[in-house]
Amino acid sequence: MGAFAAMSNCDMASLVIVFNPQVDLTRSSLRPGASVETHMSARDNLQKRLLSCKTQIIVNTALDEHLVQLEDLCEQQPTRLTLLVHPFLPNAGLSRHLHSAGVLSGIVYNLLHMHCYVPTGRFVFK
C-alpha cells in the first residue's frame, strides 16, 4: 500500500508508518493520471479523514517536495503526526535509498519498538 492510501485508511490501524507520502497530488511530480479536480478531491478527502483519525501517524520524509507538501498536515495534526526528516535529497524513493544505505530495517524496528509493547519478542500494539 502506498503512503497516501495508508494515511487515507489510518482509522483501520493502530499505527501508520509512511515514507515520503505525496499528500497533495495537485503539486506532486508523480501522480496517477486523473483530472486536477480528482486530485484536489483526493487531497481534501485525505485531510478530512486525518482530522477525524485517532491513529498515531509517523511520516518519514527527505528534504524534497514531499516535505513541502506536509506543511499543511503538520499544522492540522500536531498531536498525532510525527515528522521525521532525513537530511538528504534522494535520487530515488526514500525507502529504497534508506534500504541501500543499510538503515531502513533499523529505522522501522526502532519505530515499532518505541510504539509497541514487546514482552516476548513479538510486537504488540499499545
Describe this structure in words.
The protein is α/β, with parallel strands linked by helices. It has one domain. The protein is 42% helix and 17% strand. The strands form two sheets. The protein has a three-stranded parallel β-sheet with strand order 1-2-3. Strands 4-5 form a two-stranded antiparallel sheet. It starts with a helix and ends with a strand.
Number of separate structural domains: 1
Structural class: alpha/beta
> How many DSSP H or I helices?
6
Main β sheet profile: 3 strands, parallel
Euclidean distance between termini CA atoms: 23 Å
Calculate Rg over CA atoms: 15 Å
| Multimerization status | single chain
**On the 0-100 scale, what is the average pLDDT?**
77
Count of strand segments: 5
In spatial order, strands of the major sheet run 1-2-3
H/E element sequence: HEHEHHEHHEE
The coarse overall form would be globular
Return residue spans where pLDDT drops below 50 for at least 5 consecutive residues: none
Give the % helix: 40-55%
Beta-strand content: 15-25%
Describe the secondary-structure layout:
Layout: H1 3-8, E1 15-19, H2 36-52, E2 56-62, H3 65-69, H4 71-76, E3 81-86, H5 94-100, H6 104-115, E4 116-117, E5 124-125
Parallel strand pairs: 1-2, 2-3
Antiparallel strand pairs: 4-5
